[in-house]
């Protein structure tokens, strides 16, 4: 072999060796770079691919009332999908018939054959996210998880579960706008006001992907969620139910646009009932807006403010005489008219009872014309220029025209004195009359009395007095006026023989949101308190009519709702309000001897007692026989059932109550368990065959 050939071979070997060495050096350098420079970043990336943070969702708190009745709660819902691509063919073929039958029996919406056909098609297409069901209840979800194939889990059985949370109200639409709704895009009512309290705080944990593909929690990484707290509302669902039905019946009868009913506890300001019903396009009614907090021109119920201002300024006494001048008085270029002409000289209390616009406007103009700001100051002191402060989202601003504004004229004051030229909400009106019932103490209205955590009270809300609106003399005179409305004025049609009430009717022409006075839309209202002598509850009813309605006076469309709600309240409290039995009568050989001689007092007595029975649960029907002599003896007699009169069922067992009602031809709906606590039709009311009655048991 020649030298040149050997040199060439040697050169090639050296080059190959050098290349191999350089390649080895490059590998070492790259490995070092990965280890020391890129290593931490790549290790973090690898860890990220095999670990993740899982959110541990906090449970939303519940809403209860003070009786412990659940009003709003969260229940689990599930959306289930199936990944058919991971299911083994042998497992699928062996179990598809059984699976289809199980699903068909669970949902009862399709046959097993149809489900099998759909599952086979999805399996053949390799569907990875086949929708099996939405809004599934917990028992449905658990049943699906136990079915063949699906019981292999997500990795082998393709079972993909997406848990969700649904907010549910056991009373459905009752107090719907007040309790509120909770959705991702919309939160209203108490759900919105107390959202932070109810929501709680989510927790989290780190999970790591195992070799089998399952995500396993890493021990010690979990941060527990802080569940939301419960709130306790002041709402009384029994009164709420009666108020809603009473309001609905009037709205339907006259095809009104909307209505609201508020029941406030006099001494505390607790809101016991808040009903808001608006007419929908199909003619039905629904709690669509919180009408109780929408400012409108109140009309004649505002005359209380005028009298209160005059009395506080010592300008009048309600026994003073005012001349309504026939019910038509001219102010500037306008004439103030009464709804019914012909009233002349009369006491101021009588003018209030008859709701004389002319008289009230005349008094306000006479005493405040030269200094109208003084009148406006009274409105400010009564907090009518501010929100009521109720713990419910959505309260709107009131509107008060003041001297110096471009809208002020020489007719503003007399019209404002009768409830025009000012916008306040029904809740303001209710708060104002409640102050008169509460000896002049104006209370802040509120809906939540406490907050609880795991059943233990962690915060309570006490009654809060806003203002003392007048002295004892002023309040006494105003009570005289409001009582006269019911005994001989515009509200005399709702007087009850069983208890007393006081209040004021209101009727106002409406002009707002595209509605003109000439359109013939009215707002009828009645606000008052009961019992008149020792008030316990204030009730405010406001109804807006359709254009040119046949009925629009407050005494016609709102006062009857007030009476129905007041009857319900009385029926639940008549024993307590009647006073101790010993103050009325004493027992004597099975007879009751009373010193009270009027039939009304006898009815009150017997409505408020139950005779001691030989065995628990025996019920005493309220029947009696009175002697004709002067002894005034009363003997309790066995029951007589009048088929056209609603019996008093309170305290009865369900079996006896249903028997009596069905004997009367009524349709019975039962809520709860135990004995009858309340009934939707007031005892003594005339009933018709086929009428529905709701019994609340406890």
Automatic annotation (TrEMBL):
Q: Which SMART domains does this UniProt record tie to the protein?
A: PASTA
Principal location class: membrane
List where in the cell it is found.
Answer: Membrane
InterPro entries membership: Beta-lactam/transpept, Beta-lactam/transpept-like, PASTA_dom, PBP_dimer_sf, PCN-bd_Tpept
**The PASTA domain, residue ranges:** 640-698
Q: Which UniProt keywords apply?
A: Membrane, Transferase, Transmembrane, Transmembrane helix
Q: Name one GO biological process term.
A: cell wall organization
What GO cellular component entries does it have?
Answer: plasma membrane
Give the Gene Ontology MF terms in alphabetical order. penicillin binding; transferase activity
Looking at the UniProt entry, the stretches that span the membrane are 12-33
Q: Enumerate the Pfam families for this protein.
A: PASTA, Transpeptidase
Q: By its UniProt entry, which PANTHER family does this protein fall under? A: PEPTIDOGLYCAN D,D-TRANSPEPTIDASE, PEPTIDOGLYCAN D,D-TRANSPEPTIDASE FTSI
Protein name, per record: Peptidoglycan glycosyltransferase
Please spell out the taxonomic lineage of the organism that makes this protein: Bacteria, Pseudomonadati, Bacteroidota, Chitinophagia, Chitinophagales
């Amino acid at each position: 072999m020649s030298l040149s050939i050997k040199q060439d071979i040697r050169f090639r070997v050296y080059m190959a060796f050098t290349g191999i060495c350089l390649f080895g050096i490059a590998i070492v350098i790259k490995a070092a770079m990965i280890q020391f420079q890129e290593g931490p970043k790549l290790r973090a990336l690898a860890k990220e691919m095999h670990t993740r943070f899982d959110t541990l969702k906090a449970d939303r708190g519940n809403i209860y009332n003070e009786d412990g009745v659940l009003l709003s709660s969260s229940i689990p819902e599930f959306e289930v999908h199936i990944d058919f691509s991971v299911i083994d063919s042998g497992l699928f073929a062996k179990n598809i018939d059984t699976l289809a039958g199980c699903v068909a029996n669970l949902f009862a919406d399709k046959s097993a054959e149809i489900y099998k056909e759909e599952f086979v098609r999805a399996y053949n297409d390799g569907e990875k996210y086949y929708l099996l069901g939405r809004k599934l209840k917990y028992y449905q979800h658990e049943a699906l998880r136990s079915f063949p194939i699906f019981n292999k889990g997500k990795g082998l059985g393709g079972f993909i579960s997406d848990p969700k949370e649904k907010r549910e109200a056991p009373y459905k639409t009752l107090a719907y706008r007040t309790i509120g709704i909770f959705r991702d895009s919309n939160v209203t009512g108490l759900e919105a006001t107390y959202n932070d309290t109810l929501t709680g705080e989510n927790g989290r944990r780190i999970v790591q992907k195992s070799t089998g593909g399952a995500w396993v929690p890493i021990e010690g990484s979990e941060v527990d969620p802080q569940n939301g707290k419960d709130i306790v509302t002041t709402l009384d669902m029994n009164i709420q139910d009666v108020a809603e039905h009473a309001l609905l019946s009037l709205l339907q009868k006259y095809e009104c646009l909307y209505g609201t009913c508020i029941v406030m506890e006099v001494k505390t300001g607790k809101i016991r009932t808040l009903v808001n019903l608006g007419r929908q396009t199909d003619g039905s009614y629904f709690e669509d807006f919180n009408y109780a907090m929408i400012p409108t021109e109140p009309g004649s119920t505002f005359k209380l403010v005028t009298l209160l201002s005059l009395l506080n300024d010592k300008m009048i006494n309600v026994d003073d005489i005012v001349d309504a001048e026939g019910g038509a008085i001219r102010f500037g270029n306008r004439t103030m008219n009464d709804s019914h002409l012909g009233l002349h000289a009369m006491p101021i209390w009588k003018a209030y009872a008859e709701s004389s616009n002319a008289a009230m406007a005349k008094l306000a103009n006479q005493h405040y014309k030269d200094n109208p700001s003084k009148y406006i100051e009274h409105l400010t002191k009564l907090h009518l220029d501010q929100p009521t402060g109720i713990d419910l989202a959505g309260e709107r601003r009131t509107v008060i025209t003041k001297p110096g504004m471009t809208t002020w004229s020489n007719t503003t004051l007399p019209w404002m004195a009768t409830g025009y030229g000012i916008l306040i909400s029904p809740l303001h009106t209710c708060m104002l009359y409640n102050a008169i019932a509460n000896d002049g103490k104006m209370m802040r209205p509120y809906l939540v009395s406490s907050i609880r955590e795991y059943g233990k009270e962690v915060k309570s809300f006490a009654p809060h007095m806003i203002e003392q609106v007048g002295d004892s003399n002023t309040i006494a005179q105003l009570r005289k006026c409001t009582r006269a409305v019911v005994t001989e004025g515009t509200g005399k049609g709702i007087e009850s023989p069983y208890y007393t009430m006081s209040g004021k009717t209101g009727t106002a022409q409406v002009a707002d949101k595209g509605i003109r006075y000439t359109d013939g839309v009215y707002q009828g209202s009645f606000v008052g308190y009961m019992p008149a002598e020792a008030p316990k509850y204030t009730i405010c009813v406001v109804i807006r009519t359709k254009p040119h309605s046949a009925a629009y006076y407050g005494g016609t469309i709102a006062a009857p709702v007030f009476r129905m709600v007041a009857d319900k309240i009385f029926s639940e409290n008549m024993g307590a309000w009647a006073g101790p039995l010993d103050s009325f009568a004493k027992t004597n050989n099975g007879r009751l001897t009373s010193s009270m001689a009027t039939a009304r007092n006898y009815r009150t007595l017997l409505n408020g007692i139950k005779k001691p029975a030989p065995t628990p649960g025996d019920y005493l029907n309220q029947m009696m026989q009175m002697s004709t002599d002067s002894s005034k003896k009363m003997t309790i007699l066995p029951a007589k059932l009048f088929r056209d009169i609603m019996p008093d069922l309170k305290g009865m067992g369900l079996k006896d109550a249903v028997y009596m009602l069905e004997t009367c031809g009524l349709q019975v709906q039962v809520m709860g368990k135990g004995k009858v606590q309340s009934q939707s039709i007031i005892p003594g009311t005339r009933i018709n065959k086929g009428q529905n009655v709701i019994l609340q048991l406890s």
